[in-house]
Write a structure and sequence with these properties.
358 residues; alpha/beta; TIM Barrel; 2 domains; three-stranded antiparallel β-sheet; 9 helices
Length: 358
């Protein structure tokens, strides 16, 4: 197994001798040997180091729509991977076996940035996704993989909660071609009580990505019954997106299922997702989607100009395609925002595990 510990630069020394990690707003202050809440950044030899560089909890080829990204090369395949740990503490985590892991045995696979890029190209993947847990905490590895991937013509996709400080945010998103940001709720109370964080840094990240980078942006909100699914909160959230990011940023509303520390909360009814989508569209969001449910209408893309169906989706399978080679509606020539090939990919709903360890 290759070396997994690398030096990092986003930290400083406090007056009491502790080292403060400056990657995310949590600002963990560490004494020698201590790890941050994320578990993967640790004070060693009087520095803060990333101890999981080059290690992964597994690799898998997925449809890009699973990230979810609906306007970033639809129908293409993406090589997905994550590590262990997370810098938030969401009680509803759907990937808790990886993001909450404190066992290095979870990181049974490994790959250098160059090998990852080469494998993605060999498998015909259009992009690599940093996902399963938040790539913010393994920033150095993600940035190196993105650089190696770019040389192979492979795009980089961040699936993230956006809980990151301003300086590392610049370096991280400079390397990303697309991002899906979890907008977990629209109250600081939810973020603090359920996730152990705060809302404002996430909103700042969203505005930064949209206004200051070239990365394509979409958002996802996991709707949890009785927690973040009220009409008032959804109204406020979607109005904020239109005002601060514009109407063309796609919003995904996905269904919660009982997991981790919220097993006593019921699954999200499909009608809740449809209600959220209706509120978003009513507030001017051009592209609002439902997720984790079988809803072809809610998963498909409609032209904001003529309202005609332009991309039909049934789960992760694409059907009708009414975009021209430049990504415009064939009916009224309205340009659909995003990144599109002249013809869609046909990867479909396959999921292909990939083992890369030497």
């Amino acid at each position: 197994m290759q070396e997994t510990v690398v030096k990092t630069k986003y930290w400083h020394r406090e007056t009491d001798g502790r080292l403060q990690c400056d990657v995310c707003p949590r600002h963990c202050r560490l004494r020698e040997g201590q790890r941050g809440l994320c578990y993967v950044r640790q004070r060693l030899d009087d520095e803060v180091k990333l101890v999981t560089y080059g290690r992964s909890s597994g690799f898998c080829v997925d449809p890009i729509e699973k990230k979810p990204l609906n306007h970033f090369y639809p129908g293409s395949s993406v090589l997905s991977f994550g590590t262990a740990g997370c810098n938030l503490a969401c009680k509803f985590c759907q990937n808790w076996d990886m993001s909450k892991s404190r066992e290095m045995d979870t990181l049974a696979d490994s790959a250098s940035p160059l090998r990852l890029a080469e494998v993605a190209a060999k498998l015909g993947c259009r992009s690599i996704a940093y996902t399963y847990n938040d790539p913010v905490i393994f920033l150095e590895y993600a940035v190196d993989v993105a650089a190696a991937s770019r040389e192979q013509g492979i795009k980089s996709v961040a699936v993230t909660a956006g809980y990151i400080d301003p300086q590392p945010r610049i370096e991280f998103f400079r390397e990303m071609d697309a991002a899906n940001v979890d907008l977990k709720a629209f109250t600081d109370r939810f973020y603090h009580k359920v996730c152990g964080g705060h809302l404002e840094p996430v909103l700042e990240t969203l505005e930064y990505i949209y206004h200051e980078t070239d990365a394509w942006l979409e958002t996802t909100t996991l709707l949890i019954p009785g927690q973040n699914d009220s009409d008032a909160e959804l109204d406020k959230m979607t109005r904020w997106v239109v005002e601060h990011l514009g109407p063309d940023v796609p919003m995904h509303f996905s269904a919660f299922h009982p997991d981790w520390k919220m097993r006593d909360v019921p699954s999200t009814p499909a009608q809740t997702l449809s209600r959220a989508r209706k509120i978003a569209i009513g507030n001017g969001v051009h592209f609002a989607y439902t997720g984790n449910v079988h809803d072809s209408d809610g998963g498909s893309t409609y032209c904001p100009g003529c309202k005609e169906l332009v991309i039909e989706r049934d789960w992760y399978e694409l059907g009708t395609w009414h975009l021209d080679e430049d990504g415009a509606c064939r009916n009224c020539e309205t340009q659909i925002p995003g990144h599109f090939d002249a013809m869609p990919g046909n990867f479909g709903a396959k999921r292909i595990p990939v083992h890369l360890a030497n």
